[in-house]
Amino acid sequence: MASVDRTAYPHLRPLLSAEELQAGYELTEPEQHFIRQNANGNRQRLTLTVLLKTRQQLGYFPALGDVPDQLIDHLAQPWGFESPMNLLDETRLKPTLHRYRTAIRSFLGSQPYTPEGQEQIEQAVRTAAIT
Questions:
Q1: What is the pLDDT of residues 46-77, one digit of tens each?
Q2: Separation between Cα atoms, residue 16 and residue 48, nearest integer Å
């Protein structure tokens, strides 16, 4: 079986170059505004920032415990947060994280997978198979 590093499935690598951090994990002004509007407090803003940027890069929300410290430190810099800073606890604050994920999906214009989505996928596969 191939290792995760050798698959097409997007994942977070433990070490990223400065170029990769700058290209994929810099906050824009609209993103900063979105984060300020949806999270209060340093840990909350950092957690929302991590969720937003990793969702944009990976196409899914990773477990917060899987996010490398290097990336968390990089995303804390624009906010002026001290490192190291812990993210919100995924087990105790599930409603907060659910609210953040819903807000991010809305901000990015994406939707969670639903049974109706299955029909869209099947139709796209049928169309692709014909061509």
A1: 999 999 999 999 999 999 999 999 999 999 99
A2: 20
Dist. CA 100–CA 123, nearest whole Å: 31
The answer to whether 47 and 88 are in contact (CB under 8 A) is yes
In contact, 70 and 57? CB cutoff 8 Å: no
Q: How many Å apart are CA 46 and CA 79, to the nearest integer?
A: 8
How far the first Cα of the chain sits from its last, in Å, is 31
Name the pTM for this structure: 0.81
What are residue 68's phi and psi, to 5 degrees? Answer: -65, 145
Q: CA 17, CA 23: separation in Å to the nearest integer?
A: 10
